[in-house]
Amino acid sequence: MELAEQGHPSKKRLNWIVGGILLGLLNTFAVATYGALGASRNYVVVDGFLLRLFGTDLASTNSYLSQMPSRADWLLMVALGMVIGGFLAALLTGTINTRSVPQLWKSRFGDSKPKRFAAAFVGGFLLLFGARIAGGCTSGLVLSGVAQLSIAGFLFGAAIFASAIPTAMLLYRKKAS
Asked: 6-45 pLDDT, tens per residue?
């Protein structure tokens, strides 16, 4: 596997082109053999597990929760695998970031840990809330949609970049001295 050195000499990262090709092949294989992928539904699945664990029947009587799997399934294992795989990859390549306030954030918004964590929590909550209202997340629409050559997947992917790039440029613009 081709590794490209970036930054610190002891830190090696997979070349982004190789990683992108491998991710694309894996995604196409998963969609072809299983069907559309998605991650946001797993929060609701875990909610149902926890409700059942604590002995309430809300998961089975609620019209939304009752449609979710009642036990761990393949998509939940994919989500857990993403977290575990990301951690193992960072551990093996020596690229674990232990800073709670990244340098880019610090230079733009200051070094307040509570402010950083609050922004991350609010942003994550809004993304998850929007994904559940929409009936799926960006991984379900963009990744699975593009793998299926769906026009909606390509259009939504383009819309993400068309809005994310100007937003990042606005949030992380250089401060006037």
From this structure: 444 555 667 889 988 988 898 888 888 887 777 788 888 8
Question: Would you state the structure tokens that stand for residue 57, as one six-digit string?
Answer: 């029947």
Structure tokens belonging to residue 127: 């993304």
Residue 69's contacts (CB-CB under 8 Å, 6 or more residues apart) are 45, 48, 76
What is d(CA 177, CA 174) in angstroms, rounded to the nearest whole number?
Answer: 9
Helix axes of 41-53 and 74-93: crossing angle, nearest 10 degrees? 110
Percent of the chain with pLDDT over 90: 14
Contact of 4 with 14, CB cutoff 8 Å: yes
Q: How far apart are CA 73 and CA 46, in angstroms?
A: 11
DSSP string across the chain: --EEE-SSTT-EEE-HHHHHHHHHHHHHHHHHHT----STHHHHHHHHHHHHHTT-SHHHHSTTGGGS-SS--HHHHHHHHHHHHHHHHHHHHT-----SS-HHHHHHH-S-HHHHHHHHHHHHHHHHHHHHHHTS-HIIIIIHHHHTT-HHHHHHHHHHHHHHHHHHHHHTPPPP-
CA distance linking residue 115 with residue 124, whole number of Å: 14
